[in-house]
Structure formats: structure tokens, C-alpha cells
């Protein structure tokens, strides 16, 4: 198996970059399994771990993988000294993970041509290794169990905040953390796709939207269920069936070589044909991994293509302002045989 470092080196060679400055902590962790505050300068011959004194002990564990530089003053000044010694020509930088101010400071200090780069490591991360898939599957299993746990708390008078707190407590006990703050909404508030839970109380016979995810061994899960609690109207039952059918069609479309935009377009066409086109407020899905939102993006504006080993959410939704909304979300592994729902 090609190592993650080798995959990165190949991409840098393709882009004719002599060195690459990693500044995103998640990308550094992905490549070197270490959490630090600072940066890693990657060259074909050596890696330079540049960190603040606060992370000295942690970064020293990587001494066999590269040279350790602990700065007392600033990252920019250390880069000025280091690049002056290396005398390389082209330096790629993860510009999309830096503020404009920080980027300008680093660019001014580097002795060589600076090339802003975006998504190099994220593209590598989008295709999961077996170990990563197993971790996401386990996080998904905990999340599925959480739905059953939370349903026991459905009763008139419980608030969105109280139910969200139960979700957090469950994940802290059964996993390591939450992938994101739980989105739990009742009744008419289910029309707000990413609203924060409030003190709104649950009433009899209404919609309950629960969007949650466990984090396990640094990897995220992301699942959504909309419950028809009690005797809801026939209208919402129809919309629920429609969303479920559309999701099934989208999942059947998941396979290597399929353009992400085509899946989203198919979802939009089917929902629009049923008369609910104005109720589409977001894309069909996104990648999941170390972050709850990763590449690829399953949306009509995306130019990405699915590859074997990717994990994407498929989450069609219909939202009627002031009335409510239905969203169903599952994680789907791209395999040579098609899409496989996780867990």
C-alpha cells in the first residue's frame, strides 16, 4: 500500500512544487499522527516539524520522521531561517487554512516563490483506508444506537435543548465526543435545516428532527432521522415517503465514476417533479472522515467524481417555511459494487 506521505509527494511532484507547508492541524494529524500547533514543511528528502514550545514534548515523538524545530519567537521567523538554508525554488502553502494576515506574513518571510494551494491533502483524505472505514462504521453504530436511546425521552414538555443534552451525554459515555453539536428540532422548527436547539417544548403529534453524530477514534459519523411522533397529518406522511424514495434512488446511483453533481441533479429533479422544488435548501451530501464535512461535495455545483473508498452522506430534505421539514441522512461507502450504507 502506498503511504500517505508518498501520496502527498507524488502530488507535489505533479504540481512541480519543491516543498509544501502544512498548517492545518487535521492534515498534519492525518499524515503524521501527531497533534501540534505550528506547521510541517514537507520536502522530498526531509520533513521539518515546526512547533511552539507548548507542543515540544508531543512533537519530539516524531524525531525519527523528520527534523524538529521548536520556535521561541514565531513560525514566520523560523521559516525565514529554514528556507534560507534550503534554497529551494517553489513552496506550496495551504493558503485556505490561513487568515489573509497570516498568509501575508509567511509569504514575506519564505525565501522562494510561494504558491497558494488548496485541497491537496483533503483530496488524499477523501479516499478512506480500511482502518478509517472501520472507525467511521463504529461511530455510525454508536449513532444509530443513540437514536433508539433518544426516542425513549420523547414526551410532551421535553425541550429541544434537553434532548440535545441527552445526546451529548450518550456520546460522551459510549464514544469519545460528538462530531458536531446535535441538531434537534420540533414541529415547525424542523423547517430550519441547521438551527440550534432551543427551549421549544415537544407537543403531541408532531415532527422531531434529530441530526447527530458520534466521534470515535478521531473519526466522525453524521446521520439524520425525522420521526413522525404520534398522529401527524397525511401530508407529512406523504412527504416522508417521498424523501425516503428519493434517498433510495440517490444511494442506488452511488458508484465509482459517477459525477457528484449528477446525483444531486437527480434528487432535485424528483423532488421538483413532486411539486416541492422550492423546499430544497441544500445539496444532497458531503464526505465524512476526520471532519464531519469533507470532500467530496455532492451538489450540482461540484465537479468531483466518486471513487472507491469514499464515504459520502446522502441526505435529501424538503422544508416548508413555518410548517416543518423532513430530512433523512445516511453515510454511504463507495464500493466497486455500488453504494453501501454504513454502519
Largest sheet: 6 strands, mixed
Low-confidence stretches: none
Beta-strand residue fraction: 15-25%
Strand order of the largest sheet: 4-3-2-1-5-6
Oligomeric form: single chain
Elements, N to C (H/E):
HEHEEHEHEHEHHHEEEEEEHHEEEEEEE
What share of residues is helical?
25-40%
What does this protein structure show overall?
The chain is α+β, with helices and mostly antiparallel strands. It has 10 helices and 19 strands. It has helices spanning 4-14, 25-32, 56-59, 75-86, 100-109, 120-125, 130-151, 160-174, 234-252, 260-273; strands at residues 19-22, 38-42, 47-51, 67-70, 90-94, 113-117, 177-178, 183-186, 206-212, 214-216, 219-220, 223-229, 285-287, 294-298, 311-314, 317-320, 324-327, 330-335, 338-342. The strands form 6 sheets. The protein has a 6-stranded mixed sheet. A 3-stranded antiparallel sheet has the order 7-10-11. It has a 3-stranded antiparallel sheet with strand order 8-9-12, with helices on both faces. Strand 13 and strand 14 (294-298) form a beta hairpin. Helix 7 packs across helix 8 and helix 9 (234-252) runs antiparallel to helix 10 (260-273). The longest helix has 22 residues, at 130-151. It is elongated and about 70 Å long. The relative contact order is 0.11. The model has no long low-confidence stretch (mean pLDDT 96).
